[in-house]
Amino acid sequence: MPVEAVVGVVAEAVEAATNKAPRRNLQHEAPSSPPKTGFFFADRETLRRADPGNFCDSCRLGYFKLRSLVVQSRYRLSGTRSFNERPMKSKAQNTGNGESKAWPTVMNWVGRATAFLGLFASLAGGITWLVHRHMVDAERKAKMALAEAQAEQGDYQGSIATYAEILKEDPTYRPALDMQLNTDELWVEDFRVTAPEGQSTAAPAAAMLDQIMPILDSGLTRAQKAQMPDILAHIGWAHWLNQGIAEREFGDAAEQNLHAALKLDAQNVYANGMLGNWILQNNGDLADAMRHFDAAVATGKARPFVRGLELGGLTYLDRKGARAAQVRVANEMRRAGEPLDRDYKRRILSFCFDPVVTDRDELVESLSAVPPDDEWQTYLWLDDNPYHEDHHVSHDFIQANLLEVSGDKAGSLAKFRALQQELTDANGSMKQSVDAAVARLSHG
Fold it and tell me: Which domain holds residue 28?
């Protein structure tokens, strides 16, 4: 067979083999044997040792072609490319390596950026929450301050409504609950109702009590044991207002609640003061009522409120001992430096010391309530308006009677005779009282 034919056959066989053979990794596995194509074996060493000089021109051309094909087949069988393809492979590998090295870096930065954005979003959300919370707290503090100011000004209804707005946003906000309850109790203590002339106060009183009583009942359900006597006392007083002013309740609910408060705390200032007033208004025992008032005063708490209940129950109470009790209360207040408004002073003066209205027995009761010195000082403390008509005449009359009650009959007679001379041309009950005193002391 001609050499050219052999070379052609071998070349075709090698080409076919390299196209079908699987690629291998030259770094891990070398070819175990040269490619085999039928009857002909050709490897690199055989072709290298062959002397192309011994070939003819045609054979020499076939030799170089065959050698090139064998070498290419070796690279293809090992998973590589030809020498001419090495720069492309190297460039592709470099590009691939660059991309493979750049991708983790990119992903790392992406991860960091995502984490940063997440942190920023969390911080932004937290800051937004804090700002919103600050605004809510500021608004709530403003409403709390408004409610307190309303209560201080006596607008208890408005104050309770403001606390209700706060509790609408947060029904469990304890400061608002507690302050609303305190305001409700103040409203009960300072309960006032007016109505147009000729109309009853029952309807407006009932409307107010409809707001007051649910808050007291709710406060009792969550109260600590130490708070319960105060709340029970105010519930009892609200029932008494509902009965006495709103005129829509009957029975002993008020008394029961007041006694229930005293069972929990026998010295409770509110229960004692309210029960003392309740006893007087229901024609109870005066001494029993005064014991409750004394217990309330002894606590040193809510003194103006207790005095108001006490004097309110005694004023114009036309019963034996009521005038003496009232003078004792006024004397205690004077000695303790407690304030007493002019209306109450005027009422005590007219009820206990009026020279015209008060008969002798009532006047003696009033002037015998406390020691003479305290009596005189208390009388002057009550009559602190020196500009009313016949001011000095009234003083002389009271002083003359006080001297007689205290046992200084000579001094009393001298005082009465001086008054008799001053009232020579006068008419009325005072002149009659002076004439009677002069006659009584002159023969006594």
Answer: 3-80
Q: Indicate whether 72 and 115 sit together in one domain.
A: no
pLDDT digits (tens, 9 = 90+) for 362-418: 999 999 999 999 999 999 999 987 666 667 889 999 999 999 999 999 999 999 999
pLDDT digits (tens, 9 = 90+) for 242-269: 999 999 999 999 999 999 999 999 999 9
C-beta of residue 179 within 8 angstroms of C-beta of residue 187: no
Residue 25's pLDDT band (boundaries 50, 70, 90)?
A: very low
**Are the beta carbons of 296 and 276 closer than 8 angstroms?**
yes
Distance of alpha carbon 355 from alpha carbon 98, whole angstroms = 120
Residue 9 counted as domain residue = yes
Neighbour-count burial for 121-142, b at 16+ CB within 10 Å, e otherwise: eeeeeeeeeeeeeeeeeeebee
Q: Quick one: 72 and 124 in the same domain?
A: no
What values do phi and psi take at 110, rounded to 5? -60, -45
Would 439 be classed as within a structural domain? no
Both tokens assigned to 403: 């001297």
